[in-house]
């Protein structure tokens, strides 16, 4: 049903989401290990610390995965070659303006 040359976007998306979630795990691990803003000690002393770690990992993974996928999609674009100057050289033109007194 689908052409053979069509990119497998789902596989691309899942691969880069997995990369984003791996980066998120490293990021959350560093946040907790370095105790940034007392976050590590706050989570360690909380009775719902595992939920907090999961939510940190999940939401950061969503962001990092989306960024990974967006970067990959943008890197796959064709080079848009519209840098040609069809108008000729640009010539600066002096425009004089006078300020009206009394109006602010």
Brief characterization of the structure:
This protein has 104 residues and is an all-alpha fold.
Q: Can you describe what's shown?
A:
This protein is mostly helical. It is 57% helix and 0% strand. α1 packs across α3.
List keywords for this structure.
104 residues, mainly alpha, 57% helix
What average pLDDT do the residues reach? 86
Radius of gyration: 26 Å
The SSE string, one letter per element, is HHH
Helix content: 55-70%
Number of helices: 3
The largest sheet is: none
Q: Gap between N and C termini, in Å?
A: 66 Å
What is the molecular shape? flat
Count the E strands. Answer: 0
Helices and strands in order:
Layout: H1 9-34, H2 39-44, H3 49-75
Helix pairs in contact: 1-3
